[in-house]
Design goal:
alpha/beta; four-stranded antiparallel sheet; 392 residues; globular; 16% strand
């Protein structure tokens, strides 16, 4: 019998194994631990939106293939949302594309816009699918590291400028930023925009946490800045805003040329998805401002609960300005290896977290940092805090 000598997995993906989220969620299930690793809520979103999905199913809307760009009702709702929130006008027929969550939007954008050999700048630490999608597109990822500073993380604009070369194709942004919770300021985004225009770069910006910003922080879409609308692909998602992460409804907004390019790749990934749920999310995007304000206030309170508990348990805490996540430094607890710490934490305290090193090219830079999710019931967070205090 002949022996195959060539590896089965292609070399672009050889460095990517099972995601850390799958590993840590399985560890949580096996040990009965509280899972503060993966960023999904433990309660469903608004009942009226769930009922809207049921109604769509019963009415036969979306049970067969929906239109390739997305159902018209959702594309119109997305366009209205961008206009009302940010003053960005998009044509729902030519400048909006519905995707299978933000993950597919990222993949389709990079597959469409990146040629083999192109460089893609990403803010490190970065969500793990970014690296895989750059690799699948044949691009070269170039990390620019957000660094801890005065209780938060900051972008070094000089380092960003130095990372741009003649081979740079695009900058992949994420704000509000997972995992650090950083929200890039208008001044920082203006500097990024000026660099993109100067060097003729595209920008793909992941803004799925746009509604989850705290302490009066402003979320600024880079597409709203001068000269950026025509060179920016903005990615949004319903999962984080409406707590229906399993529905996998995401979207992009961009100029007609960019939207057509991303659609060319997207049509050969899922083709279409989430039919009945698209109708429900169209209604969700039209919920009153009180819904979004209430969600933000609720999560801000949970952020404070978990952040304070982590500090009492001995962690150094970087209080996030947005997202679902708190990043901590484990060195005050006498530990330096986030992987080892997270793998032992279920036995030591009955809680699961994620080592931030998985989000870095430079694993040493991320080694002492660990991420906890606070998008859970208050009583779950209180129990987690109680358990974590065993570490003191």
């Amino acid at each position: 019998m002949a022996v195959m000598t060539r590896p089965l997995l292609n070399r672009r993906l050889a460095e990517f194994g099972t995601t850390i989220f799958a590993e840590m969620s399985a560890l949580a299930a096996r040990t009965g631990s509280i899972n503060l690793g993966q960023g999904f809520p433990d309660t469903d979103g608004p009942e009226e939106i769930r009922e809207a999905a049921v109604r769509a199913l019963r009415d036969g809307r979306g049970n067969q293939y929906p239109p390739g760009p997305g159902v018209p009702e959702l594309r119109s709702a997305i366009a209205d949302h961008q206009r009302q929130r940010y003053g960005l006008a998009y044509d729902p027929d030519t400048e909006v594309l519905v995707t299978a969550g933000a993950t597919e939007a990222i993949a389709a954008a990079l597959l469409a816009l990146v040629e083999p050999g192109d460089e893609v700048i990403a803010l490190e630490p970065y969500y793990d699918s970014y690296a895989a999608c750059v690799a699948m597109a044949g691009g070269t990822r170039v990390p620019v590291t957000l660094r801890p500073h005065e209780g938060g993380y900051v972008l070094d604009l000089d380092e960003l400028r130095a990372a741009v070369t003649d081979r740079t194709r695009l900058i992949l942004l994420n704000t509000p930023h997972n995992p650090t919770g950083t929200v890039l300021t208008r001044a920082e985004l203006t500097a990024v925009a000026e660099l993109a225009i100067e060097r003729d770069l595209l920008v793909v910006t992941d803004e799925v946490y746009e509604h989850l910003v705290f302490d009066g922080t402003e979320h600024v879409p880079i597409a709203s800045l001068p000269g950026m609308r025509e060179r920016t692909v903005t990615i949004g998602s319903a999962g984080k805003t409406f707590s229906f992460t399993g529905w996998k409804v995401g979207w992009i907004t961009a100029s007609p040329g960019l939207t057509a390019a991303v659609r060319s790749a997207k049509q050969f990934l899922t083709y279409v998805s989430s039919g009945p749920f698209q109708y429900a999310i169209a209604e969700a995007l039209r919920l009153p401002a009180s819904y979004f304000d209430g969600l933000r206030a609720e999560l801000e309170a949970k952020r404070d609960l978990l952040s304070e508990g982590l500090a009492q348990a001995g962690f150094a805490v970087y209080r996030p300005a947005g997202t679902y996540f708190v990043t901590t430094d484990i060195r005050p607890l006498g530990a330096e290896d986030g992987f080892a710490f997270c793998r032992s934490l279920p036995e030591r305290a009955g809680v699961v977290a994620i080592p931030n090193a998985v989000f870095y090219d430079d694993r040493e830079a991320g080694a002492p940092f660990v991420r906890f999710a606070f998008c859970k019931k208050t009583e779950v967070l209180e129990e987690a805090v109680s358990r974590l205090k065993r570490l003191v």
